[in-house]
Backbone:
């Protein structure tokens, strides 16, 4: 069965500092990994997805994610945080044995302080 | 191009009543997914429809049901409402055929059960 863990409920960073939002996953087959962001009172927006062979994936708004197969992790990163990055971030996974069901983590709230 | 649209935006019901939530996917998308976002619980997978058929179901009781119409729009029905059904219900659509296809989300229906 698929599962996703986001170990931090909240991450606080200062504007201009690098940020990392952690995600680990468990799947039966090959993983298809995604990050989504939810701004207040809005639906989720796609940020980036893992593409086979590229361990560092670049996405929207300057975000990137690092895939580590041995650690079954897909951490979201950004070199320099902006106040406008403050939002709720979700990691999600599908595998190639579970149909097209996408499972989401519990979410991590990112606060960027000016 | 119109995004995923959901109606109503807000819905207030009393315990024991039935609620009907509606979703129109992006034009050309045949897959529709329903998620429940309860406070502090992240996104819980409810249902996946494709080409008019229910393809997968999450761990929810049978009083959560739905359907997909020939135009690919979808309806989620919740019978015998309970207080804990209060949540944001998100609909998403995607193209079918590839496991790394991203989801496009609507803004959700906020269901309040009194």
Residues:
């Amino acid at each position: 069965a698929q599962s996703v863990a986001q170990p931090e409920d909240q991450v606080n960073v200062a504007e201009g500092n690098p940020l990392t939002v952690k995600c680990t996953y468990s799947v039966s087959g090959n993983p298809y990994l995604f990050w989504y962001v939810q701004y207040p009172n809005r639906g989720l927006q796609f940020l980036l997805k893992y593409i086979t062979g590229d361990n560092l994936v670049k996405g929207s708004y300057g975000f990137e994610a690092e895939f580590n197969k041995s650690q079954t992790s897909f951490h979201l990163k950004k070199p320099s945080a902006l106040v406008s990055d403050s939002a709720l971030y979700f990691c999600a996974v599908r595998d190639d044995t579970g149909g097209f069901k996408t499972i989401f983590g519990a979410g991590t709230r990112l606060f960027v302080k000016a | 191009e119109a995004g995923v649209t959901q109606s109503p935006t807000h819905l207030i019901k009393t315990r024991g009543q039935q609620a009907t939530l509606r979703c129109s996917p992006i034009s050309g998308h045949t897959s529709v997914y329903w998620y429940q976002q309860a406070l502090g619980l992240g996104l819980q997978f409810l249902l996946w429809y494709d080409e008019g058929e229910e393809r997968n179901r999450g761990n929810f009781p049978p009083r959560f049901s739905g359907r997909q119409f020939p135009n690919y729009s979808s309806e989620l029905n919740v019978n015998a409402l309970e207080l804990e059904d209060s949540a944001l219900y998100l609909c998403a659509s995607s193209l079918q055929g590839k496991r790394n296809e991203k989801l496009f989300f609507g803004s959700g229906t906020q269901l309040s059960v009194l």
User: Anything to note?
Assistant: Chain B touches chain A through 28 residues (CB under 8 Å).
